[in-house]
Amino acid sequence: MIHSEEQQRDYVSVTYNEKDRPFTKYPVLLTRYLVSKYKLSKGCKILDLGCGRGEFLRGFISCGLIGYGVDSSNNAAPICPEAEILQSDLEKKPLPYEDCSFDYVFSKSVLEHFYYPEELVQEIFRILKPGGLVITMVPDWESVHKTFYEDYTHRTPFTVISLRDIFIINGFKNVKVEKFRQI
Length: 183
Fold this sequence. Notes:
By secondary structure, the chain is of the alpha/beta class. It is 27% helix and 17% strand. It has 6 helices and 5 strands, in the order ααβαβββαβαα. The chain has a 5-stranded parallel beta sheet. Helix 2 packs across helix 3. The radius of gyration is 16 Å and the shape is globular. The relative contact order is 0.13.
């Protein structure tokens, strides 16, 4: 490795740069599927927790939801100018929102990046309105155990059982966990 005077870059800029991982139609297709499956109502507020580049947030907005995003990077702002996007270190409590602020909270490939993901789950519980819905997607440890740590920022692997338990233990009701294969 060669020492460089270049300043440290953020995770999203390095791992999800457009050259290595170009934008695709997948985020829009996935968000349309989730809106239909869970009957998410237009005009409701959704927080994309760990919104990264903003692709999924943009998909939810295109389905008529009012979009909010929070991430440690500010990469989503250009792709989602109509959304309120905050830059925040997600490991620091509390999340920068009032109690009971959101109808829905979405996170994809976020919880596994924390040593203490239960603290983030507690914050999700706090900012979600009573009766609200959380959609959390994490890599399935049983399927990816051989490659999980290829991303050096992965800290906590999840199975169907451990993902269910972390939400139940932190006060959520009607918790349903299922495997989902991305295409």
